[in-house]
Write a structure and sequence with these properties.
Helix content: 25-40%
Structural class: alpha/beta
CATH superfamily of the largest domain: P-loop containing nucleotide triphosphate hydrolases
Low-confidence stretches: 1-14
Number of helices: 29
CATH architecture of the largest domain: 3-Layer(aba) Sandwich
Number of domains: 4
Length: 800
């Protein structure tokens, strides 16, 4: 090799190990103890001569540690924490087999290491331990005085993982090469082709590391491990960042300037500042001229930033930026709920500024969407549920669970049954695209416990969220295109931001209060309820999934003190788009009317008196377990139930064909969903006719079933009937008296009395006036207040 041959000089990197302050030295010693243990180098080299034998023994020790730990159940439920107990060799093997690009991932269980449960339990009489560190480390003073010293250092490792994770990470990167080639036989050979750098992911942060968005602003945990749960509101592009850059010295080393040094230095980069750090001088020739190499010797890793916001949306939801590195990138999706374990860091808002914003440098990400929001039911709890089923009938059981859940809220019991079945949900059907979610609207006067019911449902179903439509975020209830700060540059850009429905898991319920006060586009909300997804095509385009159930509450906008007014359509008084209201499976109307017994019961309930003192309510946790277990059942309608639904639908349409409006075909899938939810609650694989009849009883009280005319935007049925009766009296008078011009409304009133019908004169006058405004009635109002009629052969009462 000539002097001009390129050489790799990394001595600067390792010489830094001998120039550490006292705190760093203690962290360094703890890291060496961890690497000695997990690599197996702590074991007797004669008894365990190769990496496989060492790995097997370390794996055995890890399994033993889990079995004796008080954290056993939590660890066994998370495969990453199980792997953290295993040797580096085993972790590398598992991760490389699961990765397309041979990525090595090693997990560090902060809680388990801090508990001391992983401290090796060796039989000192039968086992010989190797406390000699690798030669390169021994030469610069990395030694253990004895086994007790080793144990102390190892015990400190868990504490430093939580309190000083950045230094632990830096030490692992500096020291890992001394141990990886001893743990992974193919490591050195594979590294000759391209650098294989392990990712050290911290998992299992203890409870004291839990943070909320509310206390993030005042926490003093900067630089420490924290754990935060939230929902992904924005996902940035996946980029690449240099962690170390190779520079070649191009300084001339002879007087004739014909030969260059050409040695290479690998310089760690400060990824937080985002500026390239160059070498100060060449360790070989002391020169200062360098060129950056775009070679495989420079080390890069993928990077991705996401925005995490609080789960329970408010008018001004709190959020924080999370930076994902390496194996954690390209995992988060907008709308997903995740739990991030990472280091709380500060980022200057601009260069050389003392003002900073907080962000999280993620070390592990756990999805708490879908599966995680499902309550786990043990075998013993399943037996308790089955025992309850055996002791009560279907209807007794559902009333008992509903009362245990919301017995303090006094309202229509059929409404509460409907809400409970909504929590259980139906079963999807692909052929006709029947959704599993059940959508319910509660419209009522103020003070009819609507908001309380929404809050109760939110607490009943894990993962559910509640939002006020009036105070919804800029993204609205569904999603919106809006300008946001770029997660990398801080500049403004357009992005698709998910709203409350998109952020709610499929198995949960999005509770929307004050729906009638929603200020954004109802068109997207309409599509969200109907198809379970919305396609946004504005400045940016994208498809947003909205598969959850929706429970909404609304107040009338018109009337005295925003109460419903009689004889005016309920839906008209809500002042909402009819097509949106038609997407709800069930619309319940709650009126605040005086009722002595009901009012007395409400008063006692408000004062804390139980409505059923003879019964003992079930624990809420058991109620949730029952719902979770019921959701594991996937019933189908029996042939008899299908025939019953179809026959009843046809007969009801036949019975209403002479009226203004026919029963909507939408009632069929609505009845199907409630029936399947009832069968689920009953833990039956087949939904019977009895389940359908139970669902019919619930839906019979809804506006959807009571009045098809109002669902189409017309006046209430009693008003339509009254109009029809006045029209018939008017036409009957003209025919009986052969008078078709200058008809006084009082003549019609007298004609009604002759037939024994008592009718208010003013109402007749107002009704005839309204007829005259519709040209199809052939009624015309004269200037003197009388009426002419020119259609005796075609009364057409149905359009009056």
């Amino acid at each position: 090799m000539t002097e001009e041959d390129e050489t790799m000089d990394v001595s600067d990197e390792y010489s830094a190990l001998s120039q550490l302050d006292e705190r760093d030295k203690r962290v360094k010693e703890a890291v060496v103890a961890y690497l000695m243990r997990q690599s197996g180098l702590i074991l007797d080299p004669k008894k365990y001569p190769d990496s496989r034998a060492r790995a097997n023994r370390i794996d055995e020790l890890g399994k033993e540690a889990i079995q004796r730990s008080v954290l056993k159940s939590q660890i066994l439920s998370d495969q990453r924490r199980v792997l953290a107990s295993q040797s580096i060799a085993t972790q590398a093997k598992v991760s490389m087999e699961a990765s397309e690009n041979a990525t090595i991932v090693c997990y560090l269980d902060a809680e388990m290491f801090a508990s001391g449960d992983y401290i090796p339990l060796f039989d000192m009489e039968s086992e010989v331990l190797n406390l000699q560190t690798p030669e390169e480390l021994s030469n610069i003073g990395f030694k253990f005085k004895g086994y007790d010293d080793f144990r102390d250092k190892f015990e400190n490792f868990g504490t430093y993982l939580i309190t000083d994770p950045l230094t632990v990470q830096r030490m692992l990167e500096l020291l890992q090469d001394f141990f990886l080639d001893q743990s992974i036989p193919t490591y050195k050979e594979a590294s000759n082709f391209h650098p294989i750098l392990p990712y050290w992911n911290i998992v299992g942060a203890p409870k004291r590391c839990d943070k909320t968005f509310e206390n993030l602003g005042v926490t003093n945990a900067t630089g420490k491990i924290i754990k935060l749960r939230g929902q992904v509101s924005e996902v940035g592009d996946q980029l690449t960042v240099y962690t170390k850059i190779a520079f070649r010295c191009i300084n001339y080393i002879d007087e004739t300037k014909t030969r260059k040094c050409l040695s290479t230095a690998l310089v760690p980069q400060n990824t937080e500042e985002g500026l390239i750090t160059k070498p100060k001088e060449c360790s070989r020739c002391k020169g200062t001229d360098f060129e950056k190499l775009d070679s495989e010797k420079s080390r890069i890793e993928p990077i991705q930033r996401i925005q995490l916001q609080e789960v329970n949306l408010s008018e001004d939801p709190k959020s924080i930026m999370v930076e994902l590195r390496g194996n954690l990138t390209d995992k988060a999706r907008p709308g997903s709920t995740i739990e991030v374990t990472g280091i709380l860091r500060l980022e200057s808002i601009q260069k050389n500024s003392l003002m900073s914003s907080k962000y999280i440098l993620a070390h592990s990400v756990t999805s708490v969407n879908e599966e995680a929001v499902k309550t786990v039911v043990s075998e013993d709890e399943v037996e308790e549920i089955k025992a309850l089923c055996d002791s009560m009938s279907f209807e007794e059981r559902i009333d008992y669970l509903v009362w245990s859940w919301s017995g303090h809220l006094l309202c229509d019991p059929l409404l509460k049954r409907a809400l409970f079945l909504q929590a259980i949900g139906a079963v999807e059907e692909e052929q006709f695209g029947h959704r599993s979610g059940i959508h319910i609207l509660i419209a009522g006067d103020p003070g009819t416990v609507k908001t309380h019911l929404l809050k109760a449902v939110q607490k009943l179903v894990p993962g559910s969220r509640m939002v006020s439509a009036e105070a919804a975020s800029q993204a609205g209830i569904v999603a919106a295109c809006q300008q946001v700060e770029d997660l990398y540059t801080g500049k403004k850009r357009w992005a698709l931001t998910p709203g409350a429905l998109a952020l709610t898991p499929k198995e949960a319920i999005c509770c929307v209060d004050e729906l009638n006060l929603y200020k954004s586009d109802f068109g997207d909300f309409n599509n969200a309820l109907e198809s379970g997804e919305v396609y946004i095509s504005k400045v940016v385009s994208g498809r947003v999934a909205t598969p959850c159930s929706v429970l909404a509450a609304a107040n009338p906008k018109k009337g005295d003190r925003k109460k419903f007014v009689k004889n005016i359509s309920f839906l008209t008084q809500l002042d909402m788009d009819i097509t949106v209201l038609q997407r709800f499976d069930a619309i319940f109307i709650l009126l605040d009317e005086a009722n002595y017994e009901q009012d007395r019961a409400i008063g006692l309930s408000v004062l804390g008196r139980s409505s059923n003192p003879s019964n003992v309510p079930l624990e809420m946790e058991f109620v949730r377990k029952y719902i979770a277990y019921a959701k594991s059942v996937s019933p189908k309608l029996s042939a008899e139930a299908e025939d019953y639904i179809a026959t009843q639908h046809a007969e009801k349409r036949q019975a209403s064909k002479s009226s203004d409006y026919l029963r909507s075909h939408r009632q069929v899938p609505a009845l199907r969903r409630i029936s399947l939810a009832a069968a689920r609650f009953d833990l039956q694989e087949v939904a019977s006719v009895e389940h359908v009849k139970y669902a019919e009883e619930i839906l019979a009280t809804t506006l959807n079933e009571k009045d098809a005319g109002q669902m189409a935007g017309d006046e209430p049925e009693e008003v339509r009937d009254y109009r029809r009766s006045v029209a018939k009296l008017f036409v009957g008078y003209t025919s009986a008296k052969s008078q078709y011009e200058n008809i006084d409304y009082r003549f019609v009133v007298e004609h009604a009395k002759d037939k024994g019908i008592d009718i208010e004169p003013k109402q007749v006058k107002d009704m005839l006036t309204s007829f005259s405004k519709n040209s199809e009635t052939s009624v015309k109002r004269n200037k003197d207040g009388t009426f002419n009629y020119s259609g005796p052969q075609n009364p057409a009462y149905e359009v009056w």
